[in-house]
Specification:
Keywords: Monooxygenase, Oxidoreductase. Belongs to the 3-hydroxybenzoate 6-hydroxylase family. It comes from Carpinus fangiana. InterPro entries: FAD-bd, FAD/NAD-bd_sf, MOase. It is a single chain. With 438 residues, this protein is of the alpha/beta class. The strands form three sheets. Strands 1, 2, 7, 8, 9, 10, 16 and 17 form an eight-stranded mixed β-sheet that branches. The chain has a seven-stranded mixed β-sheet with strand order 5-4-12-13-14-11-15, sandwiched between helices. A two-stranded antiparallel sheet has the order 3-6. The chain is globular, with a radius of gyration of 22 Å. It starts with 21 loop residues before the first helix and ends in an 11-residue tail after the last helix. It binds flavin-adenine dinucleotide.
């Protein structure tokens, strides 16, 4: 993967036109053919950037694509040398698919990933506690596990060439005298931007600059991996959950040849970062050594490069305590703003939702006279906060309940609550999301 040169973006000191001449400043170039994301060459340029998106993950690429479809150009700075391949897979519910359709990539992805019909919940001895069919609860529900790498490549391939700049790690951001923002990259490159969209994930330097606290560790970590079955995987298109004491696991077919799995376990502190796949696989298998053999076989079939262990973190956006989502022309999106634990499978879905809401509001502001970018960013927060704040809390509480260790509590959960009391429909109401076409 080629890196861009460090002199990609030069410091330019002359004054830029005001927002009142939007067309010439924000116009998105017309895409003639999909880009390949492997090599992006620098174009020496002395112009400033209007909209810079920091972070080329799900939030960054979907925001760039939503803006592009509204005729607004942007540049994405990604610290890595290529699109992220880690993180194995993500389960996307119907709200995520609504957004992917709106930005024009839903059907490309549907062709590659299986539709998941339902879920089965088992206890650690393999006893089935309950099963559900998603469409019985909600005819419009759509659930698929997608490979993160393919999701990112698909988003990037729908962007105009030269939108994503790799090896471009933001080191520092400052407000300049004329109200623009000076972005300094670790390699010394500097650029000015009128609008900065922080899509730089849970350790976001942009969020830090805006005064957000570090995300808080939830007390749980997750192993995850993507098992390969070149000869075809044998599982029904269902999410399989196995609940133990202070420990739970799951697996779900992603495609005809791949199966995603995870194990969540309690740990008082996140512990050291481990990248050795042999150690990770050994630790994962030890946790579930007496559990149904399907799970152990799936772990055995996991290529080293797809296995990881991640501490689960979140940030609760308490009103009056937490900084606003925007500060002048800087705004945060996705995990940079509202990291949430994965217990509802909603972090990426919400990042996608953020992207279309923000893009629509920005485009309206840019195309109006006079442009009011700051009020558009405040309106984005006003619309999104009531959505993401309760979800973050709910995801955390669900995680705590599922990670109980007490034997009596787990017995009541497995013998009474799950078989007799749980209704899936209300539990998935949060996947309702109206998404107008762009
Ligand atoms: C175990 C686990 C399971 C999950 N399962 C699901 C699921 O099933 N469904 C779901 O919807 N969500 C799930 N999530 C949540 C989901 O992964 C995140 O919400 C999603 O990745 C957020 O996307 P993002 O673009 O905001 O952040 P990220 O994906 O973290 O992307 C941030 C990008 O910014 C880049 N970056 C960071 N710093 C800089 C810098 N200084 N300069 C330039 N670039 C920078 C990074 O390299 C990265 O590419 C899960 C999370 C975990 C941990």
């Amino acid at each position: 993967m080629a890196a861009i040169s460090s002199n990609l973006l030069y410091l330019n000191t002359h004054r830029s036109p005001p927002f009142s001449h939007p067309q010439s400043w924000f116009q998105s170039s017309t895409r003639t053919k999909p880009i390949t994301v492997s090599t992006i060459k620098a174009q020496a340029s002395s112009r400033k950037e209007d909209i810079v998106i920091v972070g080329g993950g799900i939030a960054g690429l979907s925001t760039a694509l939503a803006l592009h479809r509204l005729g607004i150009g942007s540049k994405v700075l990604e610290q890595a040398v290529s699109l992220r391949t880690g993180g194995a897979s993500l389960t996307l519910f119907k709200n995520g698919w609504r957004v992917l359709d709106t930005i024009g990539v839903g059907n490309d992805l549907r062709r590659q990933f299986l539709e998941i019909q339902g879920m089965v919940v088992k206890s650690e001895d393999g006893r089935e506690l309950r099963s559900f069919r998603f469409k019985d609860e909600d005819e419009s529900q759509e659930v698929r596990a997608v490979e993160r790498r393919i999701l990112l490549e698909t988003l990037a391939n729908h962007l105009p060439p030269d939108t994503v700049y790799f090896s471009s790690k933001l080191a520092n951001i400052e407000r300049s005298e004329n109200g623009e923002f000076l972005l300094e990259l670790v390699d010394g490159a500097r650029l000015y931007a009128k609008i900065v969209i922080g899509c730089d994930g849970i350790r976001s330097p942009i969020a830090k600059w805006m005064g957000f606290s570090e995300p808080r560790y939830s007390g749980h970590c997750a192993f995850r991996g993507l098992a390969g079955y070149p000869e075809g995987q044998p599982f029904e298109p269902k999410v399989n959950y196995i609940y133990g004491r202070g420990l739970r696991a799951g697996y779900v077919p992603v495609s005809p040849t791949k199966v995603y799995w995870f194990i969540c376990f309690n740990r008082t502190s996140p512990g050291p970062k481990i990248t050795d796949a042999v150690v990770l696989k050994k630790q994962a298998k030890e946790l579930v050594s007496n559990w149904p053999s399907d799970l152990l076989n799936i772990i055995d079939r996991t290529p080293d490069e797809t296995i990881s262990r991640t501490p689960l973190v979140d940030r609760w956006l308490w009103p009056a305590v937490t900084p606003a989502a925007s500060n002048g022309g800087v705004v945060v999106v996705g995990d940079a703003w509202h990291p949430m634990t994965p217990n509802l499978g909603q972090g990426a879905c919400c990042a996608l939702e953020d992207a279309v809401v923000l893009a629509r509001k920005l485009a309206n502001a840019i195309n109006s006279e006079p442009a009011s970018i700051e009020s558009a960013l405040r309106s984005y927060e006003a619309e999104r906060w009531p959505r993401v704040f309760p979800l973050t809390i709910r995801a955390n509480l669900v995680g705590s309940a599922l990670q109980w260790e007490n034997q009596l509590v787990c017995s009541v959960r497995n013998n009474v609550v799950i078989p007799k009391l749980v209704r899936l429909g209300p539990l998935l109401e949060h996947t309702n999301f109206e998404c107008e076409p762009l």
